[in-house]
Amino acid sequence: FGEDGEIRKAAKAEGIPEGFMGLDCGEESMKANSKMVSKAKTIIWNGPMGVFEMASFEKGTKALMDEVVKVTKKGAVTIIGGGDTATCCKKWGTEE
Q: Which member of 16, 30, 59, 75 has the lowest number of beta carbons within 10 Å of its beta carbon?
């Protein structure tokens, strides 16, 4: 576990390989999340999508943050809960 460890991708069909952990979203999950968030009028978000503190595992959280910011600017009501999610906002300058 860590930035210097072996990183593999996994799909729903195969599952996560033995001895590995799911530390971020994959492309399919990011697309599904974006599709649902883009339709939302109210978003309650509590918890990052991956280990966003490590660059190798921040993609899913960043993609979701970008989509949430986009729909919030269009008028969606967004509530961010939890310290880790608030830390994500601070990391990417999206607190407002």
A: 75
Report the distance separating Cα 16 and Cα 14, nearest Å: 7
Q: Which two tokens stand for residue 77?
A: 């009501």
Task: State the pairing for strand pair 42-46/77-81.
Answer: parallel
Backbone torsion region of residue 55, taken as left when φ is above 0, otherwise alpha when ψ lies between -120 and 50, otherwise beta: alpha
How open is the CA angle 59-61-65, to the nearest 5 degrees?
115
Classified as helix, coil or strand, 91 is helix
Q: Which residue in 21, 95, 26, 23 sits closest to 65, CA to CA?
A: 95
Query: What's the pLDDT tens digit per position in 61-90?
Result: 999 999 999 999 999 999 998 889 999 999
Q: What's the predicted TM-score (pTM) here?
A: 0.89
